[in-house]
Amino acid sequence: MSVEAGSHAPNPSEYISHHLQNLASSTQTNIVDFSIINWDTMFWSIAMGALGCFLLWMAARKATSGVPGRFQAAVEMLVEMVEDQSKSIVHGNRAFIAPLALTVFVWVALMNSLDLLPVDLPSKVIGWVGLGSIITHHRIVPTADLNGTLGIAVGVLILMLYYSFKIKGAGGFMHELFTAPFGNHFLLWIPNLLLNLIEFCAKTVSLGMRLFGNMYAGELVFLLIALLGGIWSFGADASVLGFVGHVIAGTAWAIFHILIVLLQAFIMMMLTLVYIGQAHDHH
To answer: Is 86 a catalytic residue?
Structure first.
C-alpha cells in the first residue's frame, strides 16, 4: 500500500479505495481523458498477451501426430471448440477470424485469471523489491479496468468496420448504412443512418461494459472477503470466526470465480465472432 496508508491502519473504506486505484501517469480530473495511461493495466495486458502467445506456440511446437499429452490435448480441444463456433457463425473466409477468436479467448481468460491471486500479493511483492515508494497503487486485473475492456471493444469495432468494407465494398457499406433496416427511401435515410450508428456504439459499449462489470464485481467481492480475514486477532475471542469465514468464503468464491473467468472469456469470444459474422452478412 502507499506510504501514507502504511503509516496507520486503514479503515475498510480506505483499504478498498486504495486497491481500486490504478497506477496512472497522472491524476484524472475529467470523465474522459486520453492523455492518461494506466501503467498497470498496460503491463499486465501485454504480459498476458505474450504469455498466451507463448503457450500456444509451445503447443504448436510440441504437437505430435501420435498420442497427445495432456497439454496438447487441452489445446486441441480448445482449438476445435473455437473452430466449430467460428464455422457456425461466420460464413466466409475464416483464415484470420478463427485464430482471432482463439487469441481473444486465451488472452481474456489469462487476464481474468489474475483475479484469483491474493488481493494484497502485488503490494507485498512491490514492497519486497523496494519499489513501495514509487509504485503507490497497483491493480493486477486489466479486465477490472474499464479502459482495458473498452480498448478490446474498440479493437473489435475496428475489425467490424474493416470486414464491412472488405466484404461489401465502400459503396455497399454506405448503401447499407442508409437503407437498413427500414428500406431504401430517401425519407428513411437519416433514421436508418442514426440507428446504424447507435448500433455500432451500443455493441462497442456493451461489449466492454459487460466484461468490466463482471470482473470489477468479482474483484470487489475478493476485497470484502479480505476485510473479513483482517478482523482476526491472535487472541482467544470471537474474532477468530472472521478468519474462519475468510478461509471458507474465499475458497468458495475462488472456486466459483473460475467459472466466471472462463465464462466471460467465452462470451467475449462469441460476441467477437457474432459481430464480425454480421459484418459478412448482407441486409
So the answer is: no
